[in-house]
Amino acid sequence: MVNFGMPRLGYQDCADLFDQHVGKSSAFRVVHYRDIVPHYPLRDLEYHHVGTELWEPQEQFNGPLKQCDGSGEDEQCSDSVPVWRWNPHDH
Q: What whole-number distance in Å separates Cα of residue 8 and Cα of residue 49?
């Protein structure tokens, strides 16, 4: 499964169940630069991502992708972008 700009799926139990049945190595989320959508619902509400993030950390499209750690919430990838830099135009 490959998804582009996916929001968080659900609580940790839901994300774990998805990863268990689909597998983190077969589910990828491509996130462009400062895309706002993958940051919702907020982590503060205990929502989590599924699969492995492939982050495009540059403004131009078709740049190199960084494969993140597979936790769904890698703070070295799109979660490293501060809230005031999130941008709906990057979706």
A: 5
For the record, the structure tokens of 45 come out as 């509400």
pLDDT exceeds cutoff 90 at 47: yes
CA distances from 70 to 22, 38, 53, 87 (A): 13, 15, 7, 24
Q: Within 13 Å of residue 34, how many CA atoms lie on the same side as its CB?
A: 11
List beta partners, residue 28: 2, 52
Average pLDDT, the chain: 91
Report yes or no on whether pTM surpasses 0.85: yes
Alpha-carbon torsion, ordered 40, 67, 35, 49, to 10 deg: -10
Q: List the structure tokens of 74.
A: 């890698």
Residue 68 near residue 55, CB atoms below 8 Å = yes
